[in-house]
Amino acid sequence: MPWNLTSDRPIYAQLIEKLQLDIITGHYKPGEKLPSVRDLASEASVNPNTMQKALSELERSGLVYAQRTSGRFITDDQELIKNTRNELARMQIRDFIRTMRQFDLDDDEILHLIQEIMKEEIE
Amino acid sequence: MNELVTCRNLTKRYGSKFALNNVSLSIESGKIVGLLGPNGSGKTTLIKILNQLITPTSGEVLIGGSPLTVETKAKISYLPDRMCLGNWMHVADAIDFFADFYTDFDRSRAQDMLDKLHIRPSDTIRAMSKGTKEKLQLILVMSRRASLYCLDEPIAGVDPAARDYILSTILNNYDPDATILISTHLISDVENILDEVIFIREGSVLLQSSVDDLRIQNGKSVDHVFREVFKC
């Protein structure tokens, strides 16, 4: 998957989001070994220091853990992965609702539209 | 982090014109730093002083705490803003030249990179395109195991694909303990690989900041901030 970084926000924050997405969508499986900092940095065309910072942040959140000599791995904790996914979904939905309210739609209208479009998407 | 480059009250004057005016700054090791400013702002002057090609009018420069000497020179790998190799040279000559000059030159690393680009030892520099010359020179410079790399306009005048190649070569050869100082005015191309930026105008440092802090404070890209600061 391409990294698609924009320049108007800190790179490390975007790297964290991208890696979280790769974990919750199963691009990286639970327990899987991550590529080295250098390889990830080269893939994303970013500074290894920035990638290091993003990975340290993911370690702090528990999604990734470091094994002293053998590198970094994705957590085996399915619950944590699920929680992260739900948190990201909540963020997206909050943004979406905010935009819809800017369009001056009331909550019933928003819900109605969502249901309508979901039905269309199934067909 | 330890301080790798220290400049104190550095001034370079040509007649009545100040190329650098009382510049004080410090650069830590383990960083990729962008030296950004418009044409004629003093970027090349600063880099030439670090490489002892010109001497400051006044002020002090320390590399790893020591004043500039032959020893500090050996720790700095320098990419000039123009071709420094003779037109008559073959690639093999250029490699020998670097290997003779610099004990920290890694010949096999250079050879590997040149092979990947299909640049042959028998190729002459005269027959190369501007982009290929830039790549050759960068490969030689990045094949040294230096503490400080001073890259003066490494991506100026080459096409976008060659720029990508040059930036990835810089990243792939970057040793986390070393510092890379990149001077350029092509900011949007380099800003994603920088830790820090130094803005320089008319010989004075306007700002030195981490790239992420700059983005958080302004909610804009470094390129945008630069355009605002240097608006004509």
Structure description:
The complex is a heterodimer of chains A (123) and B (232). With 123 residues, chain A is mainly alpha-helical. Helices cover 63% and strands 7% of the residues of chain A. In chain A, strands 1-2 form a two-stranded antiparallel ribbon. Chain B has a single domain (3-229), classed as Rossmann fold (3-Layer(aba) Sandwich), CATH 3.40.50. In chain B, strands 6-7-8-3-9-10 form a 6-stranded mixed beta sheet, with helices on both faces. Chain B has a 4-stranded antiparallel beta sheet with strand order 2-1-4-5, with helices on one face. Chain B is globular, with a radius of gyration of 18 Å. Classes of the chains: A mainly alpha (123), B alpha/beta (232). The interface between A and B is medium-sized, with 17 and 26 residues.
Short précis:
Chain A is mainly alpha-helical. Chain A has helices spanning 11-24, 37-44, 48-61, 78-102, 107-122; strands spanning 64-67, 71-74. Chain A has two domains: 11-76, Orthogonal Bundle (Arc Repressor Mutant, subunit A); 79-122.
Between the first and last Cα atoms of chain B, what is the distance in angstroms?
37 Å
Arithmetic mean of pLDDT of chain B = 92
Structural class of chain B: alpha/beta
CATH first level of the largest domain in chain A: which class?
Answer: Mainly Alpha
Beta strand % of chain B:
25-35%
Annotated CATH architecture of chain B: 3-Layer(aba) Sandwich
